[in-house]
Design goal:
The chain has 439 residues and is of the alpha/beta class. The chain contains 20 helices and twelve strands. The longest helix has 18 residues, at 49-66. InterPro entries: Bact_solute-bd_prot1, SBP.
């Protein structure tokens, strides 16, 4: 079925330079006569596979609009190291899609970044909730444009497993655990937990903490203004430990979870031989369920919002990739044009149609998304406005919140292995955080 274009004003979007951005004025990328013809724009990002292919469609649309040739480099997960080595080698990319707030701040404080243009700033003010500008800014200067977002407060489930257990999508955390035990009693463990990938465990903690402790405490902990030994942290770990310690709720128990990576956790729910009824993670679960296992999203793979914990509000935790311009990039004009283009609903619509993508740009019509489930997750993200909180581990120094085998990732894996002492885990987290933030 053909999708409707992003808004009525874009019902006939053209990729000429005079195209009008949905809900805004003329797109400034490149000027009026393909002024970037003959020039090359280099872009680096963590993406590979399907994500890289879909982002290439955005790059191709930019080429059609401006005449610029594009070169893409996949950095892998260690963006900071790869970009740093390229800068030292005199081969800096023009634009980097940065996946962590902490890394964006690190780049800015090292003096690697050029502020975004006033035109991009105006587009952000008009199309984004203020929280996204805050996450893209350092000391009041806007360096990062959040082009791609993730909704990390979604729990994915098998409707067949729920039907067999006689349960419906829950609205509260305790109800979710009760429903999970009913699923287990009907023949499947409740959750596939991707404990081999420590980042998934940070996401579990963050949703519980945001709902239990509230956004003010969440922000303070993210900035390390309160210690990880704070009672609110111990309370959230205790709540998470109730799940981790219940073998009926976790496929394979703690040992099985620690041997399951993120794609494997999705396979355990939506693969050919289901081993669990639910998997918690972001909207990107849908892409794996659909592309790798042929599930029809909304029919035999569905989601419910991460439920509110014990009287708190339902959390909305997000992540995202921000476009930044490097000072040492060789083509500043193309970089400015590209970041201005990414700020338009037109650019977001290209990837939204391809799938596996959410935009924080509220001017993008949700009709641009390819299915009802994506539209629902996009609407939830936009509706949350400033209540959205960015992934806490992504705001931390990478040594604490974003490195395999150390810091928060490792300590929460240890907690999954033995969740009997939340206070001791909190103390270990504080020791690691204090060292990383001081460094």
């Amino acid at each position: 079925m053909r999708r409707r274009m992003a808004t009525a004003c874009c019902s006939a979007i053209t990729l000429s330079l005079g195209a009008t951005a949905c809900g805004g004025g003329p797109v400034s990328a490149g000027g009026g006569e393909k002024e970037l013809s003959g020039q090359t724009l280099s872009v680096a990002a963590v993406w590979s596979g399907a994500e890289q292919k879909n982002f290439q469609k955005v790059l191709d649309a930019f080429t059609e609009k401006t005449g610029a040739t594009t070169q893409f480099t996949s950095t892998g997960d260690n963006v900071s190291t790869v970009v740093g080595s390229k800068i030292e080698g005199g081969n800096a990319p023009d634009v980097v899609m940065v996946p962590q707030v902490g890394v964006l701040q690190q780049f800015a404080k090292k003096g690697w970044l050029k502020p975004l243009t006033p035109a991009t700033g105006k587009a952000v003010d008009a199309g984004y909730a203020p929280v996204w500008k805050e996450y893209g800014s350092v000391d009041g200067t806007l360096y990062g444009l959040y082009f791609k977002a993730a909704h990390k407060s979604t729990v994915w489930y098998s409707p067949e497993a729920f039907a067999q257990a006689g349960v419906k999508p829950p609205t509260g955390y305790e109800e979710m655990l009760k429903s999970g035990r009913a699923v287990s009693d009907s023949g499947l463990p409740a959750f596939a937990v991707a404990g081999e990938d420590g980042w998934t465990l940070t996401d579990w903690f963050e949703n519980i903490y945001l709902s239990q402790a509230g956004p003010v405490k969440y922000d303070r902990l993210a900035r390390h203004e309160i210690p990880w030994t704070d009672p609110s942290v111990v309370k959230a770990l205790t709540t998470l430990g109730e799940l981790f310690s219940d073998r009926k709720l976790i496929a394979g128990g703690q040992k099985g979870a620690l041997g399951t990576d993120f794609p494997g956790s999705v396979e355990k729910v939506f693969g050919p031989d289901p081993e669990a009824g639910m998997v918690y993670e972001g909207d990107f679960v849908a892409g794996i369920a659909k592309d790798q296992f042929g599930r029809k999203i909304g029919q035999d793979a569905a989601f419910f919002p991460f439920p509110a914990v014990a009287g708190g509000k339902a959390p909305v935790v997000s992540g995202g990739d921000a476009a930044v311009m490097l000072k040492d990039g060789g083509n500043q004009k193309a970089a400015e044009a590209f970041t201005e283009y990414l700020a338009t609903p037109e650019a977001a619509a290209v990837w939204a149609e391809a799938g596996g993508f959410l935009s924080p740009n509220k001017k993008l019509d949700v009709a641009s998304y390819g299915d009802d489930t994506l539209r629902a997750t996009a609407e939830s993200l936009i509706a949350a406005g400033d209540a959205v909180r960015f992934d806490m581990s992504d705001q931390a120094p990478a040594a604490f919140g974003g490195t395999k085998g150390v810091g928060e990732w490792k300590l929460l894996q240890d907690f999954l292995r033995d969740p009997s002492d939340p206070a001791a885990t909190a103390a270990a987290l504080e020791a690691a955080a204090a060292k990383a933030y001081q460094g």
